[in-house]
Amino acid sequence: ADYETILVERRDAVTLVRLNRPQALNALNSQVLGELIRAFAAYDADPAQRCLVLTGSEKAFAAGADIKEMEAKVFADMYGENYFKGWEQVTATRKPWIAAVAGYALGGGCEVAMMADFILAADTARFGQPEIKLGVMPGMGGSQRLAAAVGKAKAMEMCLTGRMIGAEEAERAGLVARVVPAAALVDEALKTAAAIAAMPPLAAIANKEAVNAAFELPLAPGINFERRLFHGLFGTEDQKEGMAAFVEKRAGNFTGR
Ligand code: HXC
């Protein structure tokens, strides 16, 4: 596949996707979305690929949805084309993916980072939902995912004032999994992704589905869903291999069966 606004590399079992519109601080326009949909679908469909890292540049993960693309649109355009609906194809990715964020992750940029299974942040990362300053609001899930991640007080303050938070505050608030020095961000993300890629792939999908269910289901059906997935993994060869490898004190060799 050939892309113009993103760069896609495969490093063994890890796909590295870089947003690449430096002239617009990686602002997310329809072309970026279309290319991300294709890249994520290709990743999900390729059994040799087991984790994905999405990153931007040192200066910006992404400075938002493309304001210049949206500026002239009216309600009938936005509602008529269900603008941003395509992001649901990205969040439908079944296999694990990580957002590695350095610099600005604003508006849609923050929202895309929050679509990831988790965020690794450089110490230079700045997260914000400044849409209110433009007369709008988050439109790619930000109000919902940010509130789930950091709670009402901080989410409300960020959405109502547009205040950016730095990496440390984001980690304290539970928005990011870990903060690393900016120079080490991509290497650290690739290392983390490689560790995930070495795990039994069906177990990875099941773990992801179960944690995501925590944000959709009440506790009892959530626990039931978890337990059924857990039972289901006993139908895999990788469960036999994983437990045998532990008992035999050797590394497991997982096939995704
Ligand atoms: C289109 C953008 C952009 C964006 C930056 N650029 N962000 N273009 N959409 N979201 C462009 C600028 O116009 C400029 O282009 C170039 O990128 C460099 O940006 P500068 O502003 O010159 O850089 P700097 O002075 O370093 O400031 C960085 C910044 C600022 C603080 C991140 O760019 C900024 O505030 N950007 C907008 C952030 C924002 O409001 N994001 C939310 C977007 S709305 P030129 O051609 O002039 O060089 C959104 C909505 C989601 O995401 C859902 C609801 C609709």
TrEMBL record:
EC number: 4.2.1.17
Keyword Lyase on entry: yes
Domain of life according to the entry: Bacteria
Keywords: Lyase
First-level EC class: lyase
InterPro entries tied to this protein: Enoyl-CoA_hyd/isom_CS (IPR018376), Enoyl-CoA_hydra/iso (IPR001753)
Molecular function terms, GO-annotated: enoyl-CoA hydratase activity
Record-stated family: Belongs to the enoyl-CoA hydratase/isomerase family.
NCBIfam families: PRK05862.1 (NF004517)
Name of the protein this chain belongs to: Enoyl-CoA hydratase
Organism placement in taxonomy: Bacteria, Pseudomonadati, Pseudomonadota, Alphaproteobacteria, Sphingomonadales
